[in-house]
Amino acid sequence: MQKSQNISYYDGLGRVTFIRSDRARKLSIRINQSGEVRVSIPRFVSQKQAERFFLSRQEWVRKQLNTLKIRDCRNSMPEEGGIIQVRGKDHPVRLNRGESDVEAAIWRLLQQEALEYLPGRVRELSEQHGFVINGIKIRRMKTRWGSCTAGKGINLNTWLVMLPEYLSDYVILHELAHTRIPDHSKRFWEELDRLTGGLAKKYRKELRSHQIMCFPADKPDQ
Known about the structure:
The chain has six helices and nine strands. It is of the alpha/beta class. It folds into two domains: 3-67, no CATH class; 73-218, Zincin-like (2-Layer Sandwich), CATH 3.30.2010.10. Strands 1-2-4-3 form a four-stranded mixed β-sheet, with helices on one face. A hairpin with a 5-residue loop joins strand 3 (28-31) and strand 4. The radius of gyration is 19 Å and the shape is globular. 21% of the residues are buried. The model is unreliable at 218-222 (pLDDT under 50).
């Protein structure tokens, strides 16, 4: 899959990333949990057409950004020597040699837990639902929970181990579904709903209440 991107700035909306992708079937706008706005452009649509499309939807984008609860997570960060809980286990946060801050130490701890848990869970769900994938990568991502490559490789965010298991399963199933249906068409959401026992819409909404680098104690009650 080939991608290219352009970044533009709009008054009152900030940075908007225009991404041209061979997998995009139509012009679409996505806003992630951090308020990042992305416009997907099919290969047959020009940049000017994409910009006109975005401008026609800018009031909708403004409303979405105004209603999105983007929390400042700096105050939820534990101090060095503090404890974070990952999958029911307490981990003291200590800086290793070469680590400059607590955030680096936390990502290291989560990476260790994620590598122990996520690859096996992906294999379980793949076998359960009959998916064939070509590799799993677990890495630090600030704005995305996961992605799927054109070659059916799965990329997952290390932070998934901080989610309830059913939500991390939802993210995994979302990316597995993309190995069969690469876009976000109606057929994709129907497939994901089937995989989640009719709970895709509920899980999608709940996932939006979780923010990367925010800790459970600082999340609003569900």
